[in-house]
């Protein structure tokens, strides 16, 4: 298996990014060209930013899509701080639907990083629902029939 042309870098507080990586590999199989970086209470944001800067130096900002879990959180801010020197692709508020979409389309012919970001956000919009409301509506429809 060749390495996908876009690298996905997950960034989170604690174990979330590593857990998402583990889960997505359980669902999609082993993945190449993906990394997970975490910020722990004993670490500084500067330490995380340095790790993300290393990702850019190794892979090039045009080849990376950063995905953080919480807008305005410290990991988000670490990624945003890199925009002073680099033009980067960054999605925040990630969930598994977004991540799976990004991974499945990242090696498509003529696909761009922006295409992947747009598709991941669209996947997120369709990935959440109030299940109780759905079941209630379904029950009401059954009663009407």
UniProtKB/TrEMBL annotation:
Any Pfam family the entry gives: EIIA-man
Source organism superkingdom: Bacteria
One Gene Ontology cellular component annotation held by this UniProt entry: membrane
Domain PTS EIIA type-4, first and last residues per copy: 5-128
Name of the protein: PTS system, mannose-specific IIA component
Recorded GO MF terms: kinase activity
GO biological process: phosphoenolpyruvate-dependent sugar phosphotransferase system
Record's keyword annotation contains Kinase: yes
Subcellular location: Cytoplasm
Main location: cytoplasm
Keywords assigned: Cytoplasm, Kinase, Phosphotransferase system, Sugar transport, Transferase, Transport
PROSITE patterns, per the entry: PTS_EIIA_TYPE_4
């Amino acid at each position: 298996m060749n390495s996908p042309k876009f690298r996905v870098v997950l960034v989170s507080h604690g174990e979330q990014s590593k857990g998402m990586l583990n889960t997505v590999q359980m669902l999609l199989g082993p993945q190449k060209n993906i990394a997970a970086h975490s910020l722990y209470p004993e670490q500084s944001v500067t330490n995380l930013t340095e790790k993300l800067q290393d990702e850019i130096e190794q892979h090039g900002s045009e080849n990376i899509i950063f995905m953080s879990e919480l807008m305005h959180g410290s990991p988000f801010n670490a990624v945003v701080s890199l925009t002073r020197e680099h033009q980067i692709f960054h999605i925040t508020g990630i969930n598994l639907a977004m991540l799976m979409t990004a991974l499945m389309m990242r090696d498509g012919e003529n696909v761009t990083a922006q295409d992947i970001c747009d598709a991941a956000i669209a996947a997120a919009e369709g990935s959440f629902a109030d299940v109780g409301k759905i079941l209630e509506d379904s029950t009401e429809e059954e009663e009407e029939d």
